[in-house]
Amino acid sequence: MNNVCTVFKEKISYLHPLESGGETLPEAFTYPFRYTPHPLCRRAALIVQEKLKEMGIEEGKMYGVLVVMAQPQNPFLSGARPLGAMRSLTLQEPVAFPVKEGSGLRGLYFLAAYSGQLNGSYNHPWFVPPVVDYLDPESHFQKEQTEIVELGRRMEAMRNGGERKEWQQRVTLLRADRDEAVKEAKRVYKNRPTPDPSRQGGEELRDEAYIRLRQFQKANIQRAKKLYKEEIAELEGRLAALNEKIHELYEERKRRSEALQQWLFEQFVFLNGRGERKGLVEIWKTSEAGLSPSRGSGKRNLIPSGAGECCAPKLLQAAYQLGLEPLAMAEFWWGTSKAGHYREPGAFFPACRSKCYPILGHMLQGLNVEPDPARHYENRELEPIKVLWEDEHLAVVYKPEGWCSIPGKSDQPNLLDECFRLWPEISGSVIVHRLDQDTSGVMVIAKNALVHRALGQQFEQREVKKRYVALLEGTLTVTHGEICLPLGPDLENMPHQQVDFDNGKEAVTRFEVVAVEQSGNVTRVFFYPQTGRTHQLRVHSAAPEGLNAPIVGDRLYGHVADRLYLHAESIKFVHPLTKEEMHFCLPAPF
Question: Which of 18, 172, 295, 414 could form a disulfide with 404 if both were Cys (CB 3.0 to 4.6 A apart)?
């Protein structure tokens, strides 16, 4: 075995020096699924974006940067000093350590990666290599893929061949002629005059010629049904034999495609900060560091296509292989957006959950990783729920930030359980509407099913009037308006929502600027949601198509702060039993 710091005097084209610019180095590695980009990552991302402009890249995709520190054993980089307890990794093959003119300040460097392929290729030396390069023409994958494609070509040639079409057309024509002949024979038989039994002597009933004619006409129907029978049977036999061959090719292609996909999955082997190796298939079968592929679903998810080809696994794998210490990571979008899914070039995004969640659960082991910001309430004493008003039918309460509206997958405090504690006698669903865990504000609670149903109808018919107050980052260019952007789930980055013009649900928000505060750095606004979509106000604020100004403290769509500065300040509704108009207002605590 060779230590990772074995040095070869050759350049690593994808390791780039990074000046710190006086920035403080991160104390812990980025939690990749919820983070605020470190200034060093922003600096590296700008360099990557300039490189992409230079390359003329227009293809829209995710790119990533990983800020790293060189290990002190490397004699070619001066000033390098480790920050953490990064252990030397042991690899099966010697790894070339970089020799690059002009070392980064204090041994800082960065790696860059793109998700999947770039312009249909992995041959971009400025970026880290893939974990598995299956595009090599001499690789088993490409050779087998070529044969699988050939099976598909043969199958389509048979399916769309002139001979098969000719047989199908001939069968269709013969069947049409036969059916027409049967139809005509039945018409003749039906329209033949029937003898009148009332005529004296009943001569026609005893007319043998008439009887024979009717028998002949009836036999004609049977003969018409058998018309072209042998020719049709022969052609159908040919078609059945050909279809069987097509089906055999289909089954072979399916079997070999599945086997090749499984073979490819087995080639992905990932390192982690402890120097341990684990294959993709094994990772998907286990739950690592609290990251589970099934995440409480009770079922094991199939490995998604493209797993291991996202930016984060590529970057960490390259850093581990080179013996570099990962300090911070960030991913951003660059290039043209997909229709209906606009993404601002240069905007930062979390690592995807559908592919990277289990993989990074392994790869991050051995690193000092920031805690998940979503769990920052776990060690805090939350402000208690306050009852603002109640009668025997309903209650109006104040939900402080940090409380969930309903029970979740964790044991965090939630309003539903608190309601049953406050009013043990209540029944029904209780929770009529919801607020995000990070949002504080006024909520109405039903104490029985009848009231719950009546209030729910008011919400559905948009008769309930709500007003939120929020602080937004920066200054808006308009003083009021209405945002109409359909929203839907970002399935790869749950619980994120996104603007989705194709499949999203209608979402409408009216807004009004109240004041500009903190020397123009923050804008206080009122929101009047006309619909109630998940994260509606947060996405409408942050989306470039909306206000392009995230709510202060939004850890999903903006930047982490001491809290999310969004508060449900006012609610108006009609009491379901007394028919009295109810209005409750609780000013924001900020």
Answer: 414
Q: Could you please report the per-residue DSSP string of 504-524?
A: PBP-EEEEEEEEEEGGGTEEE
CATH code (residue 499): 3.30.2350.10
Q: Is 436 a catalytic residue?
A: yes
**Which domain does 21 fall in, by range?**
2-132+269-370
Residue 392 shares a structural domain with residue 528: yes
Check: pTM over 0.90? Answer yes or no. no
Angle at 543 between CA 542 and CA 545, to 5 degrees: 140
Res. 335: pLDDT tops 70:
yes
CB 81 within 8 A of CB 104: no
Query: How many distinct structural domains can be found in the chain?
Result: 3
CA dist 338 and 347 (Å) reads: 15
C-alpha distances in angstroms, 541 versus 115, 438, 474, 475, 494?
28, 15, 11, 12, 18
Same domain, 437 and 581: yes
Distance from the Cα of residue 460 to its chain's centroid:
28
pLDDT band for 224, please (50, 70, 90 cuts): confident
pLDDT at 157: 92
Q: How far apart are CA 154 and CA 146, in angstroms?
A: 12
Distances 440 to 290, 400, 443 between C-alpha atoms, Å: 28, 5, 9
**From 436, 438, 490, 554, the catalytic residue:** 436
For 425, half-sphere exposure in the C-beta direction (CA atoms, 13 angstrom radius) is: 3
pLDDT-wise least confident of 132-136, 476-480, 510-514: 132-136
Amino acid 589 reads P
d(CA 565, CA 405): 18
Choose among 464, 379, 451, 377: nearest CA to 414.
377
Q: Which of 354, 370, 386 is the last residue of a domain?
A: 370
Q: Tokens 């920035």 — which residue?
A: 23
Write out the DSSP string of 357-388: HHHHHHHTTTS-BPPPGGGTTTTS-PPPPEEE
